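Deliverable D4.2, example record:
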Amino acid sequence: MAGGGGGPGCEGSNESDGDRQYCELCGKIENLLRCGRCRNSFYCSKEHQRQDWKKHKLVCKSAEQSKRDGRETESAAAAAPHGKQRELVVGGATLRALNEEDYTQKSGEACGGGSGRRGEERPNGHHRPPLQKLALEYIIPCMSRHGICVLDDFLGPELGEKIAGEVRALHSTGRFTDGQLVSQKSDSPKDIRGDQITWVEGKEVGCRAVGHLMTSMDDLIRHCGTKLGNFRINGRTKAMVACYPGKGTGYVRHVDNPNGDGRCITCIYYLNKNWDAKVNGGVLRIFPEGKSQFADIEPKFDRLLFFWSDRRNPHEVQPAFATRYAITVWYFDADERARAKEKYQTGEKSVRMELNKSSDEVTKVF
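Output generated by the structure prediction step:
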């Protein structure tokens, strides 16, 4: 490899290679270079290829094979249309994960291709389309296609800052406890999840703004009606307020609802102003089922995230190196929840911990 360290050089990537297009070392998905020898692996830079060479050389094809491939394959510069983004296949649809473009919507923009109509006006002058419009024209189609949906600038900076202030005040009271695992199979739970949490209804003293957030979340889900998958949503948990205190704390790859406890939608609101993921880390990385690609969600201030809670969306919180706050609510499918309660009452172990963990926090909202 040029520049020292051994290994083959890199070439521009061919976008037609689909599923393999991510950096083998860090997972980055844009501006990739292809291994010039095996032509099957990609890197975001020559430096990352150099760092990964010790492992990659064990599977890298010979230079002779690379030459044969080179005669059969067009160069990436000629083959890939200018500016084309790598596509991530999720549930039969394509998701351009780069810059979160397909599953991210700014709440202050009109839905449906920019009709220009204004919706709710906030005290700070920030405009948002009506929640019903957001639900019908953005959230439902996005969840149907991708199972992931991001809404930026959800409540506006004024209310967002009030929520953040309430959460910081809660944290200062010492009410937060270490996050618990669904199954205590590990002797070191903190090696699996490093967050500190507390549960709130939104009606407590000092939680008025949090309550407004939860009402807005409920309104969005209500406006979606029965069009979110095949679910019949009739309730949710209380709000889990979580803090990752920095120092490299995170949460290893997991599934929120692996065993059918009733949770169907995970909804997360982020509270971190001026968050720089390159410096602070803390990215939520979602791994859509059956795919090697992933979607990175930065915990940006006033950002609302939805995704399916079941095995379709394993995810992890990457190590955070600054204090990271978020509020999570899980919505329940009525039928799956009823089946889970029946199993729980008969002592089936597969749902016992999940129900024990969240049954006291169930709130009927519809």
